[in-house]
Sequence to fold (155 residues):
Amino acid sequence: MMKIDKYDRMILEIIQKQGKISNQQLAEAINLSPSPCLRRVKHLEESGIIAGYVALLDAKKLGLSLICFMQISMDKHTPERFKSFENKIAEFSEVLECHLVTGQSADYLLKIIVKDMDDFQQFLLNKLTPIEGVSGVHSSFVLKSPVNTTALTIT
Fold:
């Protein structure tokens, strides 16, 4: 784990919320001159702490309004079965997240987004359930998202 100081923390906090901020603006915000600020950002990128940059899109404005969390149970608990499922599920653009979990009756927790219930049905019946080893599916639909962030707490 790389040691980060207060300037690194400030940089990380700001760019998580303002990914398009210029180096000049970032340097001013943390009271550092532009050259050392840029060196710090480059170092954070090269170390892998900054893994990349993305644009956050408004799903509803793109017609994607149905978010679902799905618990998936597998018939066999073997590395091969899990790897096969993970490889297949990674092919589906509807899947935003896939987590192997413990403490549940399910093996995986998926977060998916689709246009509507018809699209959900197509995803479920034509993509998810045909995957070899899927033995159970439990779906929970999102009604509201009062907290929805990508920003990590920097300590």
The chain has two domains: 6-46, 60-141. The chain has five helices and four strands.
